[in-house]
TrEMBL record:
Protein name: Xylulose kinase
Catalytic activity: D-xylulose + ATP = D-xylulose 5-phosphate + ADP + H(+)
Residues involved in substrate binding: M82, H83
Enzyme class: transferase
InterPro entries listed in its UniProt record: ATPase_NBD, Carb_kinase_FGGY, Carb_kinase_FGGY_CS, FGGY_C, FGGY_Carb_Kinase, FGGY_N, Xylulokinase
Record-linked PROSITE patterns: FGGY_KINASES_1
Domain Carbohydrate kinase FGGY N-terminal: 6-248
Active site as annotated: D241
Organism: Peribacillus muralis
GO MF annotations in UniProt: ATP binding; D-xylulokinase activity
One protein family per Pfam: FGGY_N
Record-stated family: Belongs to the FGGY kinase family.
Gene name tied to this protein: xylB
Amino acid sequence: MNQTFLLGIDIGTQGAKAVVIDDMGHVVSSANVSYSFESPQPGWCEQSPSLWWESVISCLHSLWKNGVDPTAIRAIGTTGQMHSLVILDERKQPIRPAILWNDGRTLKECSEMEEIVGSDYLFNTTRNPILPGFTAPKLLWLKKNEPEHYSRIKKVLMPKDYIVYELTGEFSADVTDASGTCLLNVPDREWAWDVIDELGFSRDWFPPVSESQEVVGSLSETAAQITGLPIGIPVIAGAGDNAAAALGNGIIMEGTGSISIGTSGTVFIPLKELPDLARDQASTLHLFCHCLPGMWHAMGTTLSAGMSLRWLRDAFEKQNYDDLLEGVDQVEAGAGGLLFLPYLNGERSPLNNPAAKGVFFGLSYEHHRKSMARAVIEGVCYSLRDVLDMMEKAEIEVADWTVTGGAIKNPIWTKVLADVFQQHLHVHEEREGPAYGASILAGLGNGVWKAVADLPMLDQKANRIEFNRENQPVYDAQFARYQSIAQAMNPLF
């Protein structure tokens, strides 16, 4: 009996991951490779695209060593970090390291975009505020600061699209990732060519935009030789990491939502139609295309979620997170009044301040490693509740929440998050985040499943994390303090 396997590839900020699933949605095997980003100047974040491709190759060979038969792979889906700018020259080679989503150098260029295009027209077309992490202002920054690189641009890609190119030799984009460039007409799900023209960018830079589950190419002979995969298997357009992770967790209907805690943290809510919000109502709310045709989603992002805990681990020179978090569950809710603002590399939602900095507030002699670790976890959860508060003000509400990302591996994270949100949370422990969603897109694109309603994983039960109502007064009070301190300090940053 022939096996049917699907491959999902995720280009994350801290590492690449590859996941193989079967046609029942069960994870057959997975592999990952860790890496880091460079920070040439404070607030800057860059990575080499070649690092991603080398890591993907390493992941795939690990899968084959683990016993996965590459000839059983029927299709490939890709996903990855959004907004990060990859520019290629006429030889189809990266011109410089990619400027990442969490890079904060482009605040001036955001204002320039609004001046050139018109702030109201730009918002009404893209349905998003222009934020420093997005892709378009990075191109303006290059034009002013690295004209020798800017003049050589022949193609503009997102990280996962660069991997699609390495796999197929084809240039592509999908509606989810393109939504985060601030160059997409989000209601029409097509490039905003008038905005691109106004900004002086070449139309030839931008590949055709596809729906996420469309086939955009097939595995080339060169890629087959390098990866060990069969030549000619279809490669799907794929999706940005948050949309892919949401699909993998069944977050496809209004009234459901996901909270992701990875390098960054996001709150994600599917929408059947785009809300009619004025520019001042939208604040830093993202309104992007979902990876399912005819669906959109609302999203807000805190930039340093899991990255904050990684920073604390390194600061205390701990070998792993278990050592850092030993005894943290014995610290009472509220961390003895200690608060942490997780703005280690600026903040997006809702502050929109790339100059923001991390803060411990309320330190005293009684505090120690355990209370600081708990305060970091709680601070990230407050920042996510701050995002939810922004969404509720826009009258976007959810009754059923799922949590995903690296945080689900640690019960302290999920328990604190449930208590801070005062919501029961669902967790799918088998699902491997965005890479799992990318493998589902591969199956939809290749006809393994005809429609979303046919997905067998939607029937799989999730674990339920109960919240503790007794902790509500403490967390409500701490969250109010958190918001007050963040608002007071924002202009001081």
